[in-house]
Every structure is written in structure tokens, then in C-alpha cells.
Automatic annotation (TrEMBL):
Keywords: Lipoprotein, Palmitate, Phosphoprotein, Signal transduction inhibitor. InterPro entries: RGS, RGS_RGS4, RGS_sf, RGS_subdom1/3, RGS_subdomain_2. Residues 63-179 form the RGS domain. Gene3D superfamilies: 1.10.196.10, Regulator of G-protein Signalling 4, domain 2. One of its GO terms (biological process) is negative regulation of signal transduction. The keyword Phosphoprotein applies. This is Regulator of G-protein signaling 4. Coiled coil: none annotated. The lineage of its organism: Eukaryota, Metazoa, Chordata, Craniata, Vertebrata. Inhibits signal transduction by increasing the GTPase activity of G protein alpha subunits thereby driving them into their inactive GDP-bound form. Activity on G(z)-alpha is inhibited by phosphorylation of the G-protein. Activity on G(z)-alpha and G(i)-alpha-1 is inhibited by palmitoylation of the G-protein. Signal peptide: none annotated. PANTHER family: REGULATOR OF G PROTEIN SIGNALING, REGULATOR OF G-PROTEIN SIGNALING 4.
């Protein structure tokens, strides 16, 4: 009985240690898997952000023209306007740009009508803010649509965005988080911004921020 009792705790301890080792191994494997998945995601985001140079982003602040003629800049600006529920302005501008590329004369009228109905008419679903004179002139252009029939309206909306939403965009996180150079400052805000948008801090800066 004494032998049985003395060997029992040993067997129990052996089993527990083995069980704990198994559990620990499983958790580590799971953790590695999660870390790998997380690092893969970060690498993909990082490689995506690396393709957009800081020089390119800074040029967006030079003019609205530079911003919206850059694919990534246009996407960022569109996202910002969407957050303000005013994306109809940039959508109208883009539609006009696409319209001016129309090669077939037969397609001018239906395309022009679609843009007019969507952005300019009284019952437009995404009505843009145009003065009555420009609106009336554009309406008249619909009688015989040409490639330039939306030019004046497009210029007015461009100027409106340039003086209003573009300036707010440059002060918003949609722009600031992209233009913030790697390693610029080490405050909690910058560190958080860099991690959020994968603008990579180097290892020294990360350790200082931590």
C-alpha cells in the first residue's frame, strides 16, 4: 500500500507535466499561426504603402490637380468626401473626365443625359451645387451634346472642391496619416498613426515609443 501511495503522486505529476507541455505546445503553435497571419497582413499592407512614396504624397498638397490625377490620391480624397457625405462632387468630376474620352458621336447624347440626370437636373439623385446660370447653360447644352458640354459645370465644381473640401482634406487623417514621414516624432499620436496605417517606424523608434 505504501509503495502504491508513493508511486501515485509521481504518476500524477508525470501526466500533468506531459499534459501541460502538450497544451503549451498547442498554444504556441496557435500563437505562431496568428503571428504569421498577422505579419503576413502587415507585410501586404506595408508593401502596398511602400509603393506610394512620401514624395508623391507631398505633391498632393501642391494642388488639387495633383491629388485627383493620381489614382491613390483620388481614392483617398474620395474616401474623405464620402466620410463627409459629399462624394457627389468628385463623382461628377470623374464622370466628366470619362465623358470627354467618348470616341463615338452616337454615344455622346445618352452618356450626357445620364450625367445630367444624375448630377444636374432638379431631380438628380446626386445633385451638385451649381449656380443657376451654369445650370441653365448646361441644360441648354443637352440639346446638342458635345465633348465640352460639361466643361463649365466641371470647372465650377473643381473650384468649389479646391476652396473647400480639398483644404479640409489636407488637415484630415486621410492625408496626414499618409504624409507623416517614418520616424517623424515619437509621441503617442504619431506612433499610433504609424501602426494604424503601417507607415513603418524603424526598430529603435518602435522601442522608444513602447
Amino acid at each position: 500500500k505504501c509503495n502504491a501511495l508513493s508511486s501515485s503522486p509521481s504518476r500524477i505529476f508525470s501526466f500533468s507535466a506531459k499534459d501541460m507541455k502538450h497544451r503549451l505546445g498547442f498554444l504556441l503553435q496557435k500563437s505562431d499561426s496568428c503571428d504569421y497571419s498577422s505579419s503576413q497582413g502587415k507585410k501586404e499592407k506595408l508593401s502596398s504603402s511602400q509603393r506610394l512614396s512620401q514624395e508623391e504624397v507631398r505633391k498632393w498638397a501642391d494642388s488639387l490637380e495633383n491629388l485627383i490625377h493620381h489614382d491613390r490620391g483620388l481614392a483617398a480624397f474620395r474616401a474623405f468626401l464620402k466620410s463627409e457625405y459629399s462624394e457627389e462632387n468628385i463623382e461628377f468630376w470623374v464622370s466628366c473626365e470619362e465623358y470627354k474620352k467618348t470616341k463615338s458621336p452616337a454615344k455622346l447624347s445618352p452618356k450626357a443625359r445620364k450625367i445630367y440626370d444624375e448630377f444636374i437636373s432638379v431631380q438628380a439623385t446626386k445633385e451638385v451645387n451649381l449656380d443657376s446660370c451654369t445650370r441653365e447653360k448646361t441644360s441648354h447644352n443637352m440639346l446638342e451634346p458635345t465633348l465640352s458640354c460639361f466643361d463649365e459645370a466641371q470647372r465650377k465644381i473643381f473650384t468649389l472642391m479646391e476652396k473647400d473640401s480639398y483644404r479640409r482634406f489636407l488637415k484630415s487623417p486621410y492625408y496626414l496619416d499618409l504624409v507623416s514621414p517614418p520616424g517623424a516624432g515619437c509621441g503617442p499620436e504619431n506612433c499610433k498613426r504609424n501602426h494604424t496605417h503601417t507607415l513603418d517606424c524603424n526598430s529603435n523608434i518602435i522601442s522608444q515609443c513602447a
